[in-house]
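Deliverable D5.2: sample structural annotation.
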Amino acid sequence: MVRIEIDGQSYDVQDGENLLSACLSLGLDLPYFCWHPALGSAGACRQCAVIQYKDAEDRRGRLVMACMTPVADAMRISLDAEQARQFRSDNIELLMTNHPHDCPVCEEGGECHLQDMTVMTGHTFRRYRGLKRTHNNQNLGPFINHEMNRCIACYRCVRFYDDYAGGKDLQVFGVHNNVYFGRFEDGALESEFSGNLVEVCPTGVFTDKTFSAHYARKWDLQSAPSICVHCGLGCNIAPGERYGELRRVINRYNGEVNGYFLCDRGRFGYGFVNSPERIRKPQLKGYPDITVDTAESYFRNLLKASKPAIGIGSPRAPLEANFALRMLVGEENFFLGLEDTEHALLNAIVEMMLDGGIHSPSLREVEQADAVLILGEDVTHSAPRLALSLRQAARNASFELAGSLHILPWQDAAVRNLDKHVSSPVFIASVCATRLDDAAANTYRGSPEDIARLGFAIAHSLDESAPAPAALGDTEQLLAAAIADSLKQAKRPLIVSGTGCSSLAVIQAAYNVAKALPSINKQLVFTVPECNSLGLAIMGGRPLSQAFERIGNGLADSMIILENDLYRRAPSRNVDLFLQLADHVIVIDSLENKTTEHAELVLPTSTFAESEGTLVNNEGRAQRYFPVYPETESVRGSWQWLTIVMEDCQWRHHDQLTAACASAFPDLADIIQAAPGAGYTVKGSKIPRQPHRYSGRTAMHANANVSEPGQPHDIETPFAFSMEGDMAQIPPVLLPVIWTPGWNSNQAINKFQQETGGHLRGGDAGIRLIEASGTLPWFRDIPAEFIPTPGRWRIMPLPHIFGSEELSLHSPSLLERLPDFCILLNPLDAETLGVDTGDQVEISSLAGTWVLKVPVRIELTLPPGLLGITAGLPAFQSMKSWAQVTLRKVEQQVQL
């Protein structure tokens, strides 16, 4: 720490920090545009000017840019000196000469950083009356609006998109003060993180196109803390609602998880909440319209009349709902609802995390790794926000070199010049090319067996007591030795694996590598497919195939399916038979799907936006989400449907159910600490979901009733569906909106952080359930080399950020970014079949039970003998992972 003086007041600040960051960490207001805590300093906007004095005798001082000035002991600074204030005001005035006078119609209005900084500098009157520079706007795809005339040339957009996120297609064109930020031509932005431009841009150049379709001002949006449900990382989000419709999702800062950024699936995948395929009322086969009371009574009577029912849980339902189902049907009748391979993979991951003795890092810790090995995962598609963190890890060697050259880490341009000369090694072993390959020191392509064999060889190179694969090729041996050497030298090595290629051997090889590493700071992170996959696996239960057997053997005649489309879990013919053999099928879900079509009774449940629950992410962090707005009268939370039919149920409230779940499972005991309970108040009042400027409350329902209706009461959470209440000094996990006087944009988060870019005051949301302990023996079941069978191909599902996740497939904007419906083939296989890209082939199962005609795309990096398909696409649901098929070219008919 060093002591500096700002306007006559002494402060202790972190040595080596830049002056702007230090001032903001102290709670002082100093305007800025180009600086961003995650991007470092660029010195482009010249807005953070202050006066620096040489010593106590200096009365004049000199003008310096705070973001480019390192703090030093005994430094004397003035933010309020007239010269500094005038410079900042003049700078804003120059920026505004070309900025349009369109705040009333700009979608950024009310949460605009430019507005905040303009007011902060006192620039309230425009003297310039000349012509303004104008630009043409571009169509940047279904996610982002482009209004280039609002640009102030802060360069944040390209620094995030190109430098931080690794994008290639957003660039800056022009010179001097006539620059253009866009693509070389109209077209959808290619990066999976393009939506962050909406929050990174301090003006309204880039805005949320999905929000534009049903726009409302920030102060008119009702919000609550929530968790993204589109993968297993547990990114924190802030959804906004108006008139009973979810309008948008923005990032909610969590210093340990997602930080400032989200992936595009997490930001734009919310459309399923408003989908016309939502189940809004109970459905009973043979009855066109039933009430909630009738559905509840029918459900209760079914449970009394039938044999013991089986319950099928879900990795996209919260812990409380799965626990309620488990208690309703009994432990012996509870099934996890996972296909056998996924069930085995998740069980293995849980065992390694609980008893393997290797730390599972948060995303913040991932960014500190100085060597990375990715085994079997295309991380950008299976866990996108993790890929963004891995990109930052690749830069750690640059920061280390910068330190030796006395370059401070926030001096962005200087450090990025070093990126050209040195980088932390990232090694990727995957089935085919990945979006992270440009950051990799070396890549390897192979079947899951070959990837696992490489992993086992790396572990053996690190520790000779680890088992080694037999008959490994010379090329693979050399690669394994080189990777092992890099990992051995690292201080914070990281191994990344997961369920992406459906191989237990790959996961076991990843553990062996991590176990063999000598560093005490080694880390092992697994990706999991859904938002509560890990929590469900910790809870435990039987695989789905045993549920099929239970019904097939007549040991049960009724089933309750919780938020789970079984047709995504098993071959259609198996699910068809399973549902036909059951006398009674009860489905609790929020969206219509193939499983609900077969249900006798469908009970409508709320989504994440209308209910509360606890999810456990891939790190083992339990996090709570809360309803943004009340569910409609006919819709209930899954846990409510299940507890209300229990005899003598003791859990009528969510907090009681959470506590019961915590006491039933020792590994989940700490979930009660994830967030305060419903009894938490501030000065006797609940926390308001609505901002203090929320408008139209008395007129929102005037079309139905001129009398103002009473606000709904929320007895399950600490929040109120109103603007009444107090948000002072509440814990970060309960912050519904980020706002502080003078800071209306998302940059207000600096007022809630211990230091800019650091942890939130009061602690980041969530509680870690798992800490490294114990150890496991070496895994020794090494697969044989994969040898393709002539005339047959193995199906290899490949995850895709916009095509594989169930819920986001119901979001209209994401449907525009769906991958092409096609199969991927190696060029040699394509040559054997006589096909080229665009040709059609006929795919047949070996048993001849199904035939599918699909176009071909040649993928140079896919190994021979594998047939790549997009995992999760409905058209491919009949194809089972790793199944073998035959292919035949479909001859094109010539039109005469």
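Annotation notes: The chain has a mean pLDDT of 94. The domain at 360-521 is CATH 3.40.228 (Dimethylsulfoxide Reductase; domain 2).
The annotation will be released with the project's public dataset once the embargo ends.
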